[in-house]
């Protein structure tokens, strides 16, 4: 009795515990991984470059219709245009209007840099990935399906050949003197035809297996191409961020030279950290407030208040007072002291404490 034969990319084995050749299995696995991850990277890059799904659908339709996508201003360009129009209404000679002109012009340049970045990224990175998914991978999938059909045809031919051989052997084992010669002749002819069909099917399968194997081995060259495109994408992205950084630095310099520029005290979100981050730009530094002799400071006749400590605070030097959360202390201010600091007293201990760590009680 014959053992069933298994085929894989042109090779066969009569071992009942059949396993595909290692190299061919790796090629198929690598090709599937390449397709899956390329598709995910492509989709997510599309979302990053164009978060608006409606705009992505519009671009897709224009591409399918083989028409050029109409130019669309970026959000930065629209914002810049609004600022420039507002400056005309408020008057370019006013402090607010002149600043709107500078910021609006910067926003327009940022928007232009973004549009150039999107176009370059699409050409250098998205297009090669899409070409692989819509071109090379479709060809690989088509050839793999064709190979599977050839394998099924070959299995069918082998089944017919096996059936014909079995019938021929059975007829030879039980001779019939009246019909032996005609029947054996017919069975022998049927076996010969089945064997010829099997050889043709095997040849077609081997030829298709070789084509598929070459396509799968070409995945390595696809990785090389995608690596080059990825490096180009990184270069374009770095150039874009560098350009935006230069624009913002230039804007900061222009606002710093402007007589109408305002000094803004920015407070970080969340619980306070270093109290020095809360100092306004025109306030004396901590080094200047350190010049106050804490031991010489006397509480005013009126104006002392109780305060609850919100967070633990470790004194930075001998002029400060360490705090523990939820304790009550007495606080007051003295002339010439930074508004972000108070003098705190706890028993016979005295020192500077940051206002942001306190809840003043009435």
From TrEMBL:
Q: Which GO terms describe its cellular component?
A: Golgi membrane; mitochondrial outer membrane
Q: Where is the SH3 domain?
A: 302-362
Write down the Pfam families for this protein, in alphabetical order: BAR (PF03114), SH3_9 (PF14604)
Keywords noted in UniProt: Apoptosis, Coiled coil, Cytoplasm, Golgi apparatus, Membrane, Mitochondrion, Mitochondrion outer membrane, SH3 domain
Quote the subcellular location field of this record.
Cytoplasm; Golgi apparatus membrane; Mitochondrion outer membrane
Q: Which InterPro entries match?
A: AH/BAR_dom_sf, BAR_dom, Endophilin_SH3RF, SH3-like_dom_sf, SH3_domain, SH3GLB_SH3
Question: What is the membrane topology noted in the UniProt record heading this document?
Answer: Peripheral membrane protein
BAR domain sequence ranges: 1-264
Q: Where is this region: Disordered?
A: 260-279
Q: Known SMART domains for this protein? A: BAR, SH3
One BP term from GO: membrane organization
Q: Subunit comment for this entry? A: Homodimer, and heterodimer with SH3GLB1.
Family of the protein in this entry: Belongs to the endophilin family.
What is the name attached to this protein's record?
Endophilin-B1
Q: Which organism is it from?
A: Cyprinus carpio carpio
């Amino acid at each position: 009795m014959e053992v069933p034969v298994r085929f894989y990319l042109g090779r066969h084995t009569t071992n009942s515990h059949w396993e595909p050749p290692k190299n061919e299995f790796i090629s198929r696995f690598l090709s599937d991984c390449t397709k899956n991850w390329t598709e995910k990277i492509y989709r997510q890059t599309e979302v990053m470059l164009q978060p608006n799904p409606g705009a992505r659908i519009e671009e897709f339709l224009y591409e399918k219709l083989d028409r050029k996508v109409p130019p669309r201003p970026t959000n930065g360009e629209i914002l810049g245009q609004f600022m420039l129009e507002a400056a005309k209404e408020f008057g370019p000679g006013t402090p607010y209007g002149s600043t709107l002109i500078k910021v609006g012009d910067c926003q327009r340049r940022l928007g232009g840099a973004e549009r150039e970045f999107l176009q370059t990224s699409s050409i250098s990175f998205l297009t090669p990935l899409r070409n692989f998914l819509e071109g090379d991978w479709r060809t690989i999938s088509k050839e793999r399906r064709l190979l599977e059909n050839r394998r099924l045809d070959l299995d069918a031919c082998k089944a017919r050949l096996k059936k014909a051989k079995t019938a021929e052997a059975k007829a030879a084992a039980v001779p019939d003197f009246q019909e032996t010669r005609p029947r054996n002749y017919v069975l022998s002819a049927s076996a010969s035809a089945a064997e010829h069909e099997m050889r043709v099917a095997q040849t077609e399968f081997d030829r298709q297996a070789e084509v598929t194997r070459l396509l799968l081995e070409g995945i390595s060259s696809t990785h090389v191409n995608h690596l080059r495109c990825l490096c180009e994408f990184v270069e374009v992205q770095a150039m874009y961020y560098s350009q935006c950084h230069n624009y913002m630095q230039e804007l900061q310099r222009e606002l710093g030279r402007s007589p109408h520029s305002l000094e803004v005290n920015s407070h970080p979100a969340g619980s306070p950290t270093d109290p020095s981050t809360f100092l306004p730009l025109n306030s004396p530094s901590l080094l200047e407030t350190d010049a106050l002799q804490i031991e010489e400071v006397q509480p005013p006749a009126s104006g002392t208040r109780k305060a609850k400590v919100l967070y633990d605070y470790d004194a930075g030097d001998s002029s400060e007072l360490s705090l523990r959360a939820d304790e009550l202390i007495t606080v007051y201010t003295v002339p010439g002291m930074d508004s972000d600091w108070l003098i705190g007293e706890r028993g016979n201990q005295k020192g500077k404490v940051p206002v942001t760590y306190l809840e003043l009680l009435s």
